[in-house]
Amino acid sequence: EVQLVESGGGLVQAGGSLRLSCAASGFTFADYAIGWFRQAPGKEREGVSYFSSTDGVTHIVDSVKGRFTISKDNAKNIFYLQMNSLKPEDTGVYYCAAVYGDWPLELIRSSGSEFAYWGTGTKVTVSS
Description:
Oligomer: single chain
Order of helices and strands: EEEEEEEEEEE
Radius of gyration: 14 Å
Distance between the termini: 40 Å
Strand content: over 45%
């Protein structure tokens, strides 16, 4: 059974940092696209950063480029989202997600509708 469990969210002041972790079980990263999505209050879910399962290339949304970094530890089956220079507009619930199969970046929508497996989310609040 595929399971994803996020951790690392919390309350931080603007300019601060957080590292989100997603502990995965029931699958290995080699055959799955994995990534992070977020949903701010009153807004639609958006893709923050994810790995293509086709070639391992990563996508990162323009609004967090230079501030957020996605990484993974294949041996531990955990992937991360390092978030630096946080802004109030980064506030939201962050979800990790995974989907089996061949997923090049161009086929992955920002909404993450292709992703079959989701964690329950971890809340990030950035105060100004």
